[in-house]
Design brief:
Blueprint (H helix, E strand, L loop, with lengths): L2 H11 L9 H4 L12 E3 L6 E6 L4 E8 L8 E8 L6 E6 L7 E10 L9 E6 L8 E6 L18 H6 L5 E4 L13 E3 L5 E3 L13 H11 L3 H9 L1 E4 L27 H15 L15 E4 L4 E5 L26 H13 L4 E5 L6 E2 L1 E2 L3 E2 L14 H13 L5 E5 L5 E6 L12 E5 L12 E2 L5 E7 L14 E7 L6 E7 L4 E7 L3
Parallel strand pairs: 8-9, 9-12, 14-15, 15-19, 19-21
Antiparallel strand pairs: 1-2, 2-5, 3-4, 3-6, 6-7, 8-24, 10-11, 13-14, 16-22, 17-18, 20-21, 20-23, 24-25, 25-26
Amino acid sequence: MKRRNFLQGMAVLGGGLLLSRTPAMAATGDKPQQQSGIQIGDVLANSALVWGRSDRPARMWVEWDTEEHFAKPVKVRGPWALSPSDFTSRVELKDLPAGRRIYVRVGYTDASNNELSEWVTGSFMTAPLVVGPVRFLWSGDTAGQGYGINPEFGGMKIYRTMAEQKPDFFVHSGDTIYADGPIAEQMEVEDGKIWKNIVTPEVSKVAETLNEFRGRYRYNLMDENVRLFNSQVAQIWQWDDHEVVNNYSASKDLSQDARYSVKSPTLLQARATRAFFDYAPIRRSGPEGSDQVYRSLPFGPLLDRFVLDMRSYRGPNSDNLQTEPSAETAILGSTQVDWLLDELKASTATWKAVFCDMPLGLQVADGDVRWEAVANGDHGPAKGRELEIARLLKGIKDAGIKNVVWFTADVHYTAAHYYDPAKASFTDFAPFWEFVSGPLNSGSFGPGKPDDTFGLQVVYEKSPATQNMSPYAGLQFFGQVDIDEQSRAMTVTLKDLNNDTLYTKVLQPA
């Protein structure tokens, strides 16, 4: 990282390199530092995860209170932050009051001299137990296509815009990092403009080592907007492909990609998974020691949240035209499909929000002969991965499950989709809405081509005139959802980085 860019980043963003301190370095008597800020994740009515990172071996401490001034804080001793976890740590706060704003502060005591760091503070809303208004945001795709932290642009300023909306929580719908996208000091973009990045060694090349994958997360946390957002808004994280490598599946072949000295996608996925779970403020819901990401998170009488994983259980990307279901046609996997149907049936909330890392009916190609998402461009009866989604949609209809709404990202533009069985090749499902948003701070693309198998009707879309436009173009998007406590109507609003409203849809509960 060149000195001038480093100093510029320090001055503008208040950040700094997130160093891995040794015990000898910690013995100098200075306090532990928390340059990565804090994160709050997977909040329920009575519990929440609080994440932090020290710069050296240190004990984590968390205090929480319902008053901002911490008049009577509850003190929780956390784990040691040590080098095997890149000095990250987390605590699950329990016995929290429901439907309240909880104030937290995180500190670390040095393992060598017992010095306590400065506190890093934040707050979040717990889920309610009674009917009340709900607001949440969603989007995806952070620091892709070489668009990193640009101080002249104001950094990743869409995060500050989102924080200003004061949501109860935010869902990051995947591509939380771009491990496969090197970030350069500068590049020419549309209209001859120059995009300038802060650059660290770990983001200057594709991620291969565990430290390089972790360095991608450390990089995003250098941005002041991101740290501010993380301290004020509880999050729910998913993952997609760029946490590992573009269009990751069992058929991924890196043998001809000169950027990679590690040619095994499975080894890269193993390191990427460790880095993700080190840095994601995620609640472990699967078997002990598993890397399960799909989970359900209730949020009071008006909303249940269902987080899917379309990446971990898929078959290899292929022509996607198989006529019989098999391991080759999996996209969620039969276990996850059965789990989702059971969870949806058990839900008593008015709305069931399904957060999916890829759209169901858009054609997303992987090269010339393979498909990356569900759709295959065939437009006819369900084939390939569509077979699994057809089973899921039929199961929702047969069980009489109402008010299911899908939210996704991935395609780097924003859209509202209505899936209409009257206009579909596969018709045995109830109509539903899918809303698309993103990117947060990446190149803008699209629009994608709809597939007719599930009757996707494009009601609204906004995408760039040319592909891979920079954030200068203003085509960075997030979605906002408000549920009214009186009518229980769900209002979905698609917005841009300036908080301008692009499209609004009011859904009445069945």
